[in-house]
Write a structure and sequence with these properties.
By secondary structure, the chain is mainly β. 11% of the residues lie in helices and 36% in strands. The chain contains 2 helices and 13 strands, in the order E-E-E-H-E-E-E-E-H-E-E-E-E-E-E.
């Protein structure tokens, strides 16, 4: 049986996992990061699955590699899809990027929260390019000095 585990929303890229309860393997994840969590090599401790609890997960190659998710479980339901990857609609992603680019054109000073839900991790930077879709599934913005990009959910506003 496949169960959908829904997590509290603290700005992370995934809000749910689908878990094969017979094997403990994560077989679905969404709306983002399915390629990381649901690729077939992450499993959970079934005893740690409870509403209000935090999942213990294991990720090979070492049997003890893993940890405890920072996000509390808010719901446990039977998965409608029977497990699988949820990819966002490309039209919706492009609309998110277009809206972002109107509000924050390239060269705009912006604030980014590097760790969701933690106000002390806000950095000031400048968008170096407009928002775009990374890997066909993640709306991101490249910024000066970061050597990479940030998911649009991490942008919290204009910097002074």
């Amino acid at each position: 049986m496949i169960q959908r585990i829904t997590f509290e929303d603290r700005g992370q890229d995934f809000l749910w996992w689908e878990i094969d309860m017979e094997t403990g393997r994560v077989v679905g994840c969404g709306p983002f990061q399915a390629g990381i969590w649901a690729a077939g090599n992450v499993s959970v401790d079934p005893a740690s699955i409870s509403v209000g609890g935090r999942l213990r997960y294991f990720a090979p190659p070492l049997p003890k590699t893993g940890g405890v998710l920072r996000y509390a479980v808010t719901a446990i339901d039977e998965a409608e899809s029977g497990g699988g990857v949820s990819l966002p609609d490309p039209v919706t992603l492009q609309a998110l990027c277009d809206e972002f680019n109107l509000r924050f054109p390239a060269g705009t000073r912006i604030l980014i929260r590097t760790v969701a839900g933690q106000p002390e991790t806000v950095v000031r930077t400048v968008s170096s390019y407009g928002a775009s879709i990374l890997g066909g599934h993640s709306p991101v913005v490249y910024v000066v000095g970061a050597g990479g990009c940030w998911h649009l959910d991490h942008v919290i506003g204009r910097a002074a």
